[in-house]
Write a structure and sequence with these properties.
- The complex is a heterodimer of chains A (114) and B (180).
- Chain A is built from six helices and no strands.
- Chain A has 114 residues and is mostly helical.
- Chain B has nine helices and no strands.
- In chain B, helix 2 packs across helix 4.
- Classes of the chains: A mainly alpha (114), B mainly alpha (180).
């Protein structure tokens, strides 16, 4: 038998398998794999998770966010978020006593300002 | 839906058991055949195939698609088989008995079967790494570079394993093949 014939003989002999026996064995192994253990997590997976996130802007949401920002800014500068009675009181005390009245707290007993 | 190995592994990494079973059904026959060829024992081969598939499940979140899944899986199975061979003594196929075939065999077919049985026995007596190299090269049709990757060695070492393995087989089968 030449080297080539010997190679062919080994390959043919090794490739022969009993297909029916394999099917039964596959089913047996699959049955044994019914309950699976906990998977091993990895810190290397974190970048992949971040890369999987969709950062493409959704324009209706962007418009809604910009609208909320503009509304919040307008409310903030117009003072609509403060109670009306506080608006008038704060401005009156600030006008009457100067900057000290705004910055420093009065003495709790005497009411004197520093 | 993409049913490639890589897509299934990505789903398995997210804990998809259905994808795992699909992948297992796809690769188990080949892995079982390979393990059986290296170990020479069907029950042990099933244990190895089960262990290899469990590793696919547990390691899926860490798996990087640097090489084909089949190559990685083959490497896992071969390493598990070699580990078992290191731990346990080899039981020859002859010792496991033979299933009696009641069908009438023609003389030529009977002779071929006898030669293959002798080859099985000769392969079973090879050192574990020579046997793995022979099986991967001739049964799986892998190139020497692929075998080297699976056995975690160099191409020249694989060539040496194959040459020595074939020399041992020729020596063991001398009375069978010299008659031709």
């Amino acid at each position: 038998m030449t080297d080539d014939q010997f190679d062919t003989f080994i390959a043919q002999a090794l490739k022969r398998d009993a297909p029916h026996a394999d099917d039964a064995a596959v089913e047996r192994v699959l049955r044994r794999l019914q309950t699976l253990p906990r998977q091993h997590g990895s810190v290397w997976r974190l970048p992949a998770v971040l890369l999987d996130w969709q950062f493409t802007p959704a324009w209706p949401r962007m418009a809604a966010l910009a609208g909320c920002l503009a509304l919040g800014f307008a409310i903030g500068i117009s003072g609509l978020d403060r109670p009306i009675d506080r608006i008038s009181g704060a401005s009156a005390s600030a006008e009457g006593s100067g900057l000290g009245a705004v910055v420093f707290e009065p003495e709790p007993l005497t009411g004197a300002r520093p | 839906m993409d049913d490639s190995d890589e897509a299934l592994m990505a789903r398995i990494a997210r804990g998809d058991e259905r994808a795992f079973r699909m992948l297992a059904r796809r690769h188990l026959p080949a892995m079982l055949g390979l393990a059986r060829r290296i170990l020479g024992n069907a029950a042990e081969a099933e244990d190895v195939a089960q262990e290899a598939m469990l590793r696919v499940w547990t390691q899926a979140p860490r798996w990087q698609p640097l090489a084909a899944l089949r190559t990685w899986l083959t490497r896992v199975v071969v390493n598990l088989c070699l580990d078992r061979k290191r731990k346990a003594a080899w039981v020859e196929l002859e010792a496991a008995g033979e299933i009696v075939d009641t069908a009438p065999l023609a003389g030529e077919a009977a002779e071929a079967t006898e030669r293959e049985r002798r080859l099985d026995a000769a392969i079973a007596n090879l050192p574990a790494r020579q046997r793995a190299a022979i099986v991967l090269s001739y049964r799986e049709g892998m190139t020497n570079a692929q075998v080297a990757h699976v056995l975690n060695t160099t191409v020249s070492a694989v060539e040496t394993l194959l040459v020595r393995g074939k020399q041992n087989l020729r020596r063991a089968l001398a009375d069978v093949i010299d008659g031709e």
